[in-house]
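Budget justification note: compute hours in this period were largely spent on complex prediction jobs such as the one shown. Inputs:
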Amino acid sequence: MESIETHQHDVLVIGAGGAGLRAVIEAASQGVSVGLVCKSLLGKAHTVMAEGGVAAALGNVDPSDNWQVHFRDTMLGGKMLNNWRMAQLHAQQAPDRVRELEQWGALFDRTPDGKINQRAFGGHSCKRLAHVGDRTGLEMIRTLQDRAVQLNVPVYMECTLTHLFKAGERVCGALAYWREQGRFVLFLAKAIVLATGGVGKAFRITSNSWEYTSDGLGMAYNIGAQLMDMEFVQFHPTGMVWPPGVKGILVTEAVRGEGGRLTNNKGERFMERYDPKRMELSTRDQVARAIYTEVKEGRGSEHGGVFLSVTHLDPEYVKKKLPSMYHQFKELADVDITKSPMEVGPTTHYCMGGLRVDAETTATTVPGLFAAGEVAAGMHGANRLGGNSLSDLLVFGRLAGLHAAEFAKQNKEQPRVDNDAVQRATRELLEPFERDSGPSPYEIHEQLQDTMQNLVGIMRVEEDLKKALGVIRGLREKLRTVRVTGSRLYNPGWHLAYDLRNLLNTSEAIARSALARQESRGAHTRLDYPKTDPEWGKVNHVVYKDGEEMKLATTPLPQMPPELAKLFEDAH
Amino acid sequence: MAEAVIRISQGTAEKSEEKTYRVPVAPGWVVLDAVHYIQSHFAPDLAVRWNCKAAKCGSCSAEVNGKPRLMCKTRLDDFSPGEEIVVYPLKTFPRIKDLVTDVSWNFKVNQKITPFTPRKDAQWIMHQQDMDRVQEFRKCIECFLCQNVCHVLRNHDKKDTFAGPRFLVRVAGLEMHPLDTASRVAYLKHEAGIGLCNITKCCTEVCPEDIHITDNAIIPLKERVVDEFYDPLTRLFKIFAGK
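Corresponding output:
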């Protein structure tokens, strides 16, 4: 048996995207010892791909903007299924979080009077998104990363977490392996923050990177944490559709924010028929459904998308405000977007569902375990507005770091990690090496992606969802016999074999929640229940582990106080 | 469907060999697509770093037919039909396995740079024209292709005395920030080894973000070092002023 390298911190943060980095900065400034673990190199997490901007009611461009307006937009965008308190905290605190980034060195684009510029985005009733051309995420992650480095936070890079451990009810540590050498490493911590992102890699067509395998959701589920709202998966309306090599790559909503127009093969601006008031700047769920419908009814482009055009704008303006879109299409699709339209279609983008958390503290249902960013549920309800993710990362990343540090200060004793549990976990990880035959992890992953794409995608129906659950059950059996070849040295096949366990659990949670919600709301569309049902608007779905069984339950939606409810009196 | 012949250098720092694969190719495929196909069909343990597959994260750097490139941006149809495509890991950094190298040195270099130090009384009003040149440096995706191709690092292995183009770009971004007050000029001369750069512009040529590394970052920084340490009038002034 190998001896296991061990590290101890008051607070361990898992994931080095925007939420994880912001949590680390906050926890470190509370004076506790903090460690940061991430699967990739520092600075490569998915936040780096965020393009359009960060939503905050700074009021620099639209002076009428304030937190109430932002809060209202967020709740309406989420079809009122959001946790109202999270949406409120988010709208109130986002401006300070953005200004703070500037004080740490971020350089946002400016207004003519030298303030942070803000652009229009879908579902936002004011120009609200602070941005840097179309590479806002890069600016954010670099700023946060440099700040964390400056605070001397130890970073464990290319280190994948696989298991969380509890002592009694409380979380106390985690097992990981170094991707490089394949050796195990044990982390002991008084509090743990999960900032591990979503589950995009369960789907075939996705804007998400390989990292999006729902590790945090899977690990937390396994130790009894509750997942919530898992049926709500966002399909971003505009991903690239041609050529096949780039299918799913994101085309930023900023294209529409800057004035881009959507047309079908008849040259019609079809959004007139779906949302005449907001047109291209409707919410993502509506635009995605509209594109899906246009294509389905034969009005799509040659390669099964629709057209998105900025050819009516000044080419120099396009290159200045959308530089990476310009290069992306030029280099990957041979399209000059200042001269010809882009072909776009929906791509899996974001998971509104996630760990059930307390709005004020980001605490999950497991003591000592906190969650922030995409891995947490509640903030975005049934549909997320563009730009609200980057602000979510900052606001709740900070709260997670703060409250995890406080938890660690109040619970000074480091609980022991059960050695037998660690041994069981390492054996489980190594089993696939011992088999002489069995399916490859890549094969199982492809089958899962096809199933989720075709049966649990943008338009859902009972028969498909039941079929998907059957396939997932079969894949779970198959995974028990998965075989991995090669050594433990930087072995992607081995890494995927374990990721699949989390992917299958999360996929099942998505399919089961989607099957149970017999209505259409936000990103969840049921062809057999096309209407939004007010009764379903009163409950969230919760998924949890009971023995070896996955259980699904409903829980009443928290009700907002009358002074906030008043903001919606004139909403239709 | 067309076919590509891909030869990949596989193995570790101690022992490596080239392996050849035939891969069916769909329109628009890039080298990284072919590498993924090889992983899922022929070599499940083939090690490669990648994240976004959209040229935004800078993870999938490699040497394709001798040229440092991002694999996600290198299209297979850019090569002549029948031309063999040869993929090697970055040469300047020690190989861990297959196409993955140990780039941790870069992160250590970064830690030594004095961070952004704003004016105490900053009002945070900045004008776009003052920021344009700094925003160019902030486009860097840390793919380390410039570090890989720089002969000071690649051929002379001066990692202990030279920070490399990536970190000169980072310093330029800080030095030229409209509200920064710190000086990194002594660092540039004594620790970053900026004098070792003899402006061959290899870094600029390989930058996937088209940052004018040499012209816009390194040369202006060299000028600052010259002003501070070698300008005869400034030296005389310093002598008489007793500094």
